[in-house]
Amino acid sequence: MLNKEPEQFRESDYFRQFWRHLRQDTLALISVNLFIGLLCLVLLGYLLAPYPADEQFIGLELLPPSWNDSGHISHFFGTDDLGRDIFSRILYGFYYTAGSALLITLAVGLIGGVIGVLAGTKKGSSLFVLSHLFDTFLFTPILLIAIIIATLMEASLMNAMLAIFLAMLPHYIHKIYQATQRELKREYVVTLRLEGAKRGDLIREVILPNLTTIAVKELAHIFVIAVLDISALSFISLGAKSATPEWGTMIRDSMELIYIAPWAVILPGMAIIFTIFIITLLGNSVVRVLENYRH
Questions:
Q1: Tens of pLDDT along 97-113?
Q2: How many CB atoms lie within 10 A of CB 269?
Q3: Residues 293, 108 contacting (CB under 8 angstroms)
Q4: 76/96 Cα distance (integer angstroms)
Q5: CA-CA-CA-CA dihedral for 183, 185, 190, 193, to nearest 10
Q6: Which pLDDT score is estimated for 6?
Q7: C-alpha dihedral over 50, 56, 59, 63, to 10 degrees?
Q8: At what angle do helices 86-93 and 247-254 cross, to 10 degrees?
Q9: pLDDT at position 10, please?
Q10: Distance between CA 111 and CA 175 in Å, rounded?
């Protein structure tokens, strides 16, 4: 085990201290609560929906939102051209859009983090070569890569998720690899390695704690891009199919109604903006708390 020094390593109660600092930051605490609310909508949104996502109300097609004089409180966000309740479909959409983005983010964070750290700490290995092979993807926009991959598969939400995951993975590996290399070049780390510190101890007690800030920042960015790309692929018919209450699909199916039923397009778009706002606020807040705690 390494001999810890306060100015160099995290203490064993790192997470307890982190939460104590976070609770002292009002904006960060608000962002955490908003994120918890978002998770609840992802997991339980369909239970909160007043109607099934595909239920059609004959005779109530293109009903405006309830705040309009012609609207009904029973259909708070109005209905689409098939008479489906938009509020219910948006609540279902948290599972399909935000939930899919969350799964992509977790997968990229876990797989990319392992590959990036191992590649950064073990020169000459196949992982090192793989990391640099992925660098060739860094000059191409993520959405373009996702579109190219998605066109090779059948249009579905699962295939869109896979395409976005494969497009984002090289970028995250590259970031973690570079951050790991920077940590290994620090003077005290070089000294520890010369003194015979084990690779596993260096990773666990030095590298991982110091990668927390960049990992949070990158994962928040990945979540935001995943939400946008899932919606974008569905919008261009490379993602979720029309019957699925995914926000990008809802916008695509209602684009022809933009002038006569703008709420059918605007409200799913607002759900996307709302989700992105929460994740951006959370990422920035956690990074700020981590940086303040470090100093």
A1: 999 999 999 999 999 99
A2: 14
A3: no
A4: 21
A5: 60
A6: 44
A7: 50
A8: 140
A9: 46
A10: 13
